[in-house]
Design goal:
- The protein is of the alpha+beta class and about 850 residues long.
- Helix content is about 25%, strand content about 30%.
- The chain is built from 17 helices and 48 strands.
- The strands form 14 sheets. Strands 25, 26, 28, 31 and 32 form a 5-stranded mixed beta sheet that branches.
- Strand 12 and strand 13 form a beta hairpin.
- Helix 3 packs across helix 4, helix 8 packs antiparallel against helix 16 and helix 11 runs antiparallel to helix 15.
Amino acid sequence: MNQIGDVSNGSNGTVHKAIVASTGSMEQMYEEWFLDYASYVILERAVPAIEDGLKPVQRRILHAMQLIDDGRYNKVANIVGQTMQYHPHGDASITEAIVAIGQKELLIDTQGNWGDPRTGDSAAAARYIEARLAPFGKDILYSPQITIWQLAYDGRKKEPRTLPVKFPLLLAQGVEGIAVGLATKILPHNFIELIEASIDLLQGKPICLFPDFPTGGLVDCTDYNGGKKGGKVRIRATVVVRDQQTLAISQIAYGTTTTSLIDSILKAYEKGKIKIKNVVDNTADHIEILIHLLPGQQAATVIDALYLFTDCEVSYAPNACVIQDEKPVFITVSDLLAYTVARTTNLLEQELLLEAQSLSEKLFFASLEKIFIENRIYRKIEGCATWEAILTTIAGQLKPYELNRPIVEKDLVRLTEIKIKRISQYDSLRAQESLTQLQTQLATTMAHLQNLKDYTITWYSHLLQKYGKGRARKTILTSFDPIAPHKVVVKDYKLYVNRKEGFIGYGLKGEEFVEACSDIDDVIVICKNGQYVITKVTDKLFIGKDIIHVSIYEKKDTKRCYNLIYVDGATGIAFAKRFQVLAITRDKTYNVTLGTAGSRVVYVSDDPNGAAETVTIILSPISRTTKKKFEFNFSDLAIKGRTAKGNILTKHTIYKVQRKGQIRSTLAKVALWYDGATGQIAPNGSGKLLGMLGPTDKILLVFKSGDYMVTTYPISFQLAPDQVLLIEPLRDGHLLSVVYYNTIQKNYFVKRFVIDKRVLDKKYNIFVSELDICILKQVTSAAAPKLQLHYCVDATGHEKRSIMYDLEKVAVKSPKSKGILLSKYTITQVDVCDA
C-alpha cells in the first residue's frame, strides 16, 4: 500500500510523511474519518431524536423563533439569520427546513407564498415570506426551566439539546432522512388519533395506529408492520367517474404532485399502457384533474390501468429509525408513541414540581410579609445602628412563628426591601385572600402530582379540544384487490399463429389471427404431441410444429378450465380429462399427456368460466365395435391438475371429435359481498351479503340517476357507492317497484315492471320522457311492498297526515310506461315499509 508521502518528491513530501506517521495507513485513515463522518450525518443531520422528534436544524429553527417571538410575523430571512448562530451550515438548508415545517401547518403560522406541496410549486424567496410560532407550537414545544442546554457549535450561544416536546410530534409530522448507510422514513399520522391513542395508552387500552396523509386518498395498511422496517403501505389517488367519458382525480397520493402525476399519465400513454383522449389540470383551491376517455372505453378498466401504470398508486416502505442514547434505534410506531407518552408524563411532572416549588415560595414570602407588616416588626429596627443588628432583630422577631421552611438571610434582606408605600397601603384582608388563593393553587398542584396519570389524560383532552377542530382523518383506510396487468393494459397488438410451421407472434401478419394482446401478455401454446409451453408475447417465436391450441394465459386464473382428449402412445388408449394451469415456470416445456413416445392430442378446448361441454366421438370405420359414434359430456369429470392421467374414454381408434354444445359452468359458487363504502363487490368481503353467486348468475343495479343495469361478477366497471340505490341478485321474473318525482309536473309517480335480463352491462333509464326532469325517490323488489306516505292536505302545509299505500294494487306494465299518479295531495316524504 502506497502512503501519502510516497506520491510526492517535492517539498510537501515531508508533510505527507508526517501525516501518515501520525495517523497510520490509508486504510486506517479512511476507516476513522469515514466513521466520524457517518456518525456526524446520522446524529446531527438526517435522523431525528426520539425525545422531541426533531432533526437538529428543525430544533435550532424553533429555538431561534422562540427567542425572537413577540407575537408578530418575522421575515423568514431574519429567522434564517437567527438560526445560523446555532446551525453550522448554509442558509439554503435552513430556508428549506423552515418551508417544510410551515407547509405542515402545525407548529408555525405562515404568511405569503409558501408554495403548494400538492402541485409542487415552490415557496417565494425568504425575504418575501413571513412566519411566527403557532399557539399550538408554543403550548407543546417550550419549557426553558426543564430544558437541557448545551453550547452551540462556536461556543458563543446556548442551544437546547432537545426540546421538551409534550406531544407525539414525530408521528404527527412524519420524517424522511438518508444518512450514510442508514435511512429513516416515518409516515405522518392523524392528529386526533394520536391524542386519542395517547389517552388509551394511559388508560391501559390497546392501540392501533395507521398513517394519515395531508393529500387524502386511499391507503392499504395490510402490511404496515407497525411502521417498522420490512412493512409496506399502498396509497391511491381518489379517482371517480364524472360521467361516461370523464374521470376526475380529486385527491392525489402522498409524496406525489399534480405535475408529477400528470407526467406519469402521459408517459404511460406514450408507452401504450393506457389509452385516453386527453388530460386537463383544473387544480385551484382544490385538486381537479380531468381525464377524458375515448368513445367506448370502460371507465373501470382505465381506473385500474391508472393505478397500475401511473403515480395514481404509490407504495412506501416505512422504516422507523430514531436516535436514542446517541445511537440509531429501529422501533415500531406503537413503541414510539408509548415512549412519547411516558416522556410527556415526566415533563408534566417536572413542570408541576416547579410550579409547586414556585407557589410554595410565593406562599412562604406572602406569609412572612404578612407577619412582618401586621406585627409592625419594621418598627423594631428603627433603633438598630448596623446592618447585622437589623437582620438579627428581624430574625428574632420571626422566631415564634411556624413557616413552610427555615428563614434564611436572603428572606430577611427581601423584607427590608419592602417599600414604605406598600407598608402604608397594606390591606390585611386582601393579603389573607391572596394567601388563601395561593394555598388553593398549591393544593391543586399537589393533587395533580399525586394523580399524575389523570392529570396527563386531562392535559391531552384539553389539547384535543383546543386544537383538534378541522383535523379529522383525510385518508380512507381500506384494502386494495390486486390488479392483473393483462386485464387493464391496452391490447394494441394482434397475436397470430402458423400452426403447421410452429410459429407465434404479433409480427406474423397474414397468418391465422388468434386474438388481441399487449406486449406484457403471456401465451400458452399446446402442440399435437401433448407438450405445452407458456411464454411472453414477442414479434416472432418458434414453439414447435403442429400447434393445436394457442391463447393468452393469465397466471393463477382459477376460472379457466381446459377440456382435453389424448391418446397414450404406449397403450393406444384414449383418455379424457379436465385440468387447470395455475402456476408454471415461463419457457419451460410441460406435458398434458403421460409423456410417452407417440402420444398425441386429438381434442382440446378451454373456457374462461370453467364451462364443460359435450362432444361427439366418431371412431375409425375399421374399429372392432358396433357403436362407432357416441357422445361424451366433460361435466362428468372432476377438474384436476395438468399431471392427472384422466379417465379412459375408449380403447378404440378415434377418427374425429366434434364439439356439440356447451353447458353451464361447473365451478363452485362463491359468497359475494358488496361494500357500500368503497363500491367493491368481492368474495369474503364486508358490507352487504349478496348471496352465493356463480359466473353466470346476474346482478341487478339501480342507480340514483334513474338508470338500472343487469351485470355479472366480476363487474367490468367501477361502482361509485354514493350513486348506487339498489344492488341485489337478479331472479327470474324480477319485479321492480319504483317511486319517482317529476319536477315539471311537480307530482309523485309510481310504476312496476319486470326486469329484462337478456342484455348485460347496458344502462336503461326508468323515466320515460327525456324532456321531464325526474328524481328517483324509492325502489324496491319486495313481493308485497307498502309505502308510508306523508303529505299535506291544505295549501298552508299546516295539516299533515300519513297513510299506508299498498303497491300490489299497481298494475305491472312495461318498463317504458309512465306509471300512475301516487297522490293528488302534496307529498312531503315517501318511505318503504315492507321491503
